[in-house]
Write a sequence for this structure.
């Protein structure tokens, strides 16, 4: 997690809260001191104090107040520094970010505490303090670097290349292998483009891509990935298995070639109402659905201002899961040379 994400989240939350003292918890497996310095740099204008948790505690709900007071005492010199204390008093609030090695496991993290007499705001006053765990609730835009949009674009580009190469080889081997897929990929039933022409158009489009990391397929482009994305968007979950079989047959895959492939989470969520027993058909189904999801992700990232922000771990995990599935598909097709 990057410091600027945490600071942006705290700024957003500060607009909607009434409390003057708030504690945030971040579980960081990385260098906590470096993360603390990063937070200070990002929040140079805010009444925000990052504190690396070096004490025990924060395990007993009944001892939360004691633990928080110990933390504040450990940062007393910083909180009493003239420049920083003046910033706290001017804002009439203080945000304390607790940087720990572990996640917060308290069921209840709210407790009344009596602030010490030296505290910059409300000294010797009892307030209710709550610890908000930001580890899993820091929100980011879909355009955030953690989505790894460039890697998704590169994988889709490689996949497009491998699909063209493999489908051309299948057509040369036996044109009957691709007939069903050819019909499925037509944008209109009466589209008269021969299969070789369809592949040539796709290849020409891919040849014009200067940077694969910037590759963002569209459903209007005559590429194989673009056409499969169109299939994913226009075919029901129960109709896709037939398309998946056509794709797998056109690629002339064997069960051994797809053994142990990674089925993406979006594929599981978009599964048909019946079980797919054929591993090759299931691989094809996963490929079509994952392509659709990957393309939608890139489009959403490109128009991120039109959408909400989402928890960073969710964005990162969804991207990683999608990329893993695409990468394995590229590998499967790449070995068929």
């Amino acid at each position: 997690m990057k410091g600027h994400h945490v600071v942006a989240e705290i700024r957003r939350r500060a607009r909607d809260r009434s409390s003057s003292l708030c504690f945030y918890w971040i579980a960081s497996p990385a260098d906590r001191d470096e993360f603390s310095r990063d937070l200070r740099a990002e929040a140079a204008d805010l009444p925000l104090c990052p504190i690396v948790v070096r004490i025990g505690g924060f395990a007993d709900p009944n001892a939360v107040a004691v633990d928080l007071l110990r933390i504040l005492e450990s940062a007393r010199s910083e909180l009493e520094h003239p420049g920083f204390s003046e910033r706290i008093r001017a804002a009439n609030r203080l945000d304390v970010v607790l940087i720990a090695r572990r996640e917060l496991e308290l069921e209840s993290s709210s407790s009344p505490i009596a602030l010490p007499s030296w505290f910059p705001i409300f000294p010797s006053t009892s307030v209710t303090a709550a610890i908000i765990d930001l580890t899993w609730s820091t929100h980011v835009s879909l355009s955030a670097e953690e989505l790894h949009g460039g890697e998704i674009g590169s994988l889709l580009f490689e996949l497009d290349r491998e699909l063209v190469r493999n489908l051309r080889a299948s057509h040369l081997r036996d044109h009957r292998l691709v007939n069903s897929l050819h019909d499925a990929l037509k944008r209109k039933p009466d589209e008269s483009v021969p299969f070789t022409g369809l592949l040539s158009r796709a290849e020409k489009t891919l040849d014009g891509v200067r940077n694969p990391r910037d590759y963002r397929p569209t459903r209007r482009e005559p590429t194989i990935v673009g056409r499969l994305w169109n299939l994913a968007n226009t075919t029901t979950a129960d109709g896709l298995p037939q398309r998946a079989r056509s794709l797998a047959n056109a690629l002339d895959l064997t069960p051994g070639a797809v053994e142990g492939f990674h089925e993406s989470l979006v594929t599981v969520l978009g599964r048909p109402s019946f079980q797919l027993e054929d591993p090759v058909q299931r691989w094809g189904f996963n490929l079509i659905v994952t392509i659709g999801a990957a393309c939608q992700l890139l489009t959403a990232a490109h128009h991120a201002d039109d959408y909400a922000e989402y928890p960073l771990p969710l964005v990162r995990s969804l991207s990683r899961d999608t990329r893993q599935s695409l990468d394995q598909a590229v590998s499967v097709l790449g070995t068929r040379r």
